[in-house]
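Hello again, I could really use a second opinion on something today. I've been staring at a protein lately and its backbone has me curious. Can you walk me through what the tokens say about the fold? Take your time with it, there's no hurry, and the full record follows here:
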Amino acid sequence: QVQLVESGGGLVRAGGSLTLSCVASGSIYSINAMGWYRQAPGKQRELVASITRAGSTHYVDFVNGRFTISRDNAKNTVDLRMNSLKPEDTTVYYCHAEVIPSETYGLHVVDNWGRGTQVTVSS
């Protein structure tokens, strides 16, 4: 049904920038919060940034003002602009969305995840 597809990952030098993009498709009535998470090998998935439908944002401490999350409700997309990247930012980044499927008539919210996109920052 609902699918999230990430793009924009790749290889960048320390201090450089990348913009990750995610688009949700399928039978979607609306999407509440959207966010970006990361997961390093052998570690738990952790939040990087989130954004409500109204545009309120939240960032974890390690971002330190370097990242900006944004969304387009008409297109069901969410982006993460990453500046001043550090080698420790290297990992897989996942898109997340709280989706209200059309067939639920607004009664249920379903967590959806993308497959992830690799970000590698060289020193």
Q: What stands out?
A: The chain has a mean pLDDT of 96. DSSP finds no helices and eleven strands in the chain.
